[in-house]
Write a structure and sequence with these properties.
With 134 residues, this protein is mainly beta. The protein contains 1 helix and 7 strands; from the N terminus they run αβββββββ.
């Protein structure tokens, strides 16, 4: 009988490790640190955007009008972006300047740099992105 309190404690301890933490932030598996909101980030660099973390994965379209040209259509930039929230992850194509809502969170790709030029191709390593919302 003198071991009864120890047995009760031994039974309770494993259960305490299973506690759910309310309002836990997004879990991001990236070799990079999460940049602060408003920071221009390169591909594969996670950035805090309000309550979520956005990671630009790849540019799927960049038909923006070059800054040194006259265009009838302004074009657009689309970036496949991984969005990590508390307990969830989704990858969505985000179009420059268009708000996108996922799981009740609105996020907008607000900047794609550098500007396009008629005489120069942009490499993946040169791109930088900024997001708002969250």
């Amino acid at each position: 009988m003198r071991y009864a309190p120890l047995l009760a404690l031994a039974a309770i301890l494993p259960l305490s490790a299973c506690a759910v933490v309310p309002n836990a932030g997004p879990i991001v598996d990236s070799p990079h640190e999460i940049a602060q909101q408003g920071t221009l980030v390169p591909l594969l660099q996670p950035v805090q955007v309000g309550s979520v973390v956005a990671t630009p994965m790849r540019v799927t379209e960049d038909s923006r009008c070059p800054m040194n040209a006259r265009c009838v259509w302004a074009g657009r930039a689309v970036v496949e972006t991984r969005i990590d929230g508390p307990g969830w992850r989704q990858t969505q194509p985000l179009t420059l300047g268009e708000p996108h809502t996922v799981r009740g969170v609105t996020i907008t790709l607000v900047s794609v740099q550098p500007e396009k030029q008629t005489d120069k191709q942009i490499t993946s390593a040169e791109y930088r992105f900024a997001f708002e919302g969250g």
